[in-house]
Specification:
Layout lengths: L3 E8 L1 H13 L4 E3 L2 H6 L5 E6 L3 H8 L31 E3 L2 E4 L6 E4 L5 E4 L5 E3 L8 H27 L1
């Protein structure tokens, strides 16, 4: 009678936490397989377990909760064969994106074309690009060169002013 049975399979950590909280709030002890590993790694799916005597009550309660198991989402694999996950929050709920992408420059947007490698995360609403941008270090190099040039010119004028005194 104390055997654990699976009531939901293939949940991500957010959905599993939702189901577990719902069951425990109604007095049904619930357990998550891979609970602690799933919180460290967003890619790990977990199963929701209850005692066999609570299975019918748990199924009745969970039938009222609307959530899609992570196993029902299409699997999107990267070049290494691993499931694609968001670079910001780690969620697997990402999809390829085409359209305007806002940048850190106000009012300036990049147009994401099909095949450019842009993705949109449905969890944190972020946009990111899988492959690195071409010449991504060029703006940093230009900023450093302007800054160091200004410091050199500042020192030069300071020395000239001190010589003038």
């Amino acid at each position: 009678m104390d055997n654990l049975v699976v009531v939901r399979r293939g949940l991500d950590r957010h959905q599993a936490g939702l189901f577990k909280s719902n069951l425990e709030g109604h007095g049904i002890a619930a357990f998550l397989e891979n609970e602690h590993i799933g919180s460290l790694n967003y890619v790990v799916h977990t199963d929701l377990l209850v005692r066999s005597i609570d299975k019918d009550a748990a199924e009745k309660l969970l039938s009222k909760v609307d959530a899609i198991p992570a196993s029902k989402f299409p699997r999107r694999l990267d070049a290494d064969g691993e499931e694609r996950a968001c670079q910001h929050c780690g969620s697997m709920r990402v999809h390829a994106y085409t359209g305007a992408v806002a940048t850190w420059v106000p009012g300036f947007k990049i147009q994401a074309e099909p095949g450019d490698g842009w993705f949109h995360c449905l969890e944190c609403e972020s946009y990111y690009r899988e492959q690195p941008l071409g010449f991504a270090s060029l703006p940093v190099a230009l900023l450093w060169s302007v800054t160091l040039g200004a410091v050199v010119f500042g020192l030069y004028f300071l020395i000239q002013w001190l010589r003038f005194l």
